[in-house]
Protein: Imm10 family immunity protein
Amino acid sequence: MRGTWGMQKLLKANFLNTDVDEHTNVLIIGFADDEFNANEYVLLQKSLVTDDKRLESNEVNITYNDEIRSTFGGILNVVLYKDCVEIELDNNASRQLQTEKTIQISFAEKDDNLLKLKTHLMTMFQDHEGVFKSEV
Structure:
């Protein structure tokens, strides 16, 4: 545990996908234990088109292992390291996702994928000052 955020859930991601869905203008970052038969995964999504009528359109949606374990907002901190990312959740998000307050996702990514991940995380949290930090 690198952060000091208390109890945490560990996920070893053997698959990482980060991309923009051009049809929906949604930035998607996914971590999974397997590319095709995932048992554990974390999915982050954020619309790149803000809609003032829908509050959640400005928030990051986080899903943990199942669509029913999903919530908008509730992410307090995200720290990217060379070999992992740590996501700290508020109490409500932790309850909604049925997990610990901190999710640590380890991975082994090449530098070009790591830079793409960093760029997409920066974009995803640009409206939430101080939430995203990078040690890369």
In short: Strands lie at 8-12, 15-21, 26-32, 41-47, 61-64, 70-72, 75-80, 84-89, 102-106, 132-134. Residues 8-134 form one domain. The first strand starts at residue 8 and ends at 12. Residues 111-124 form the longest helix (14 residues).
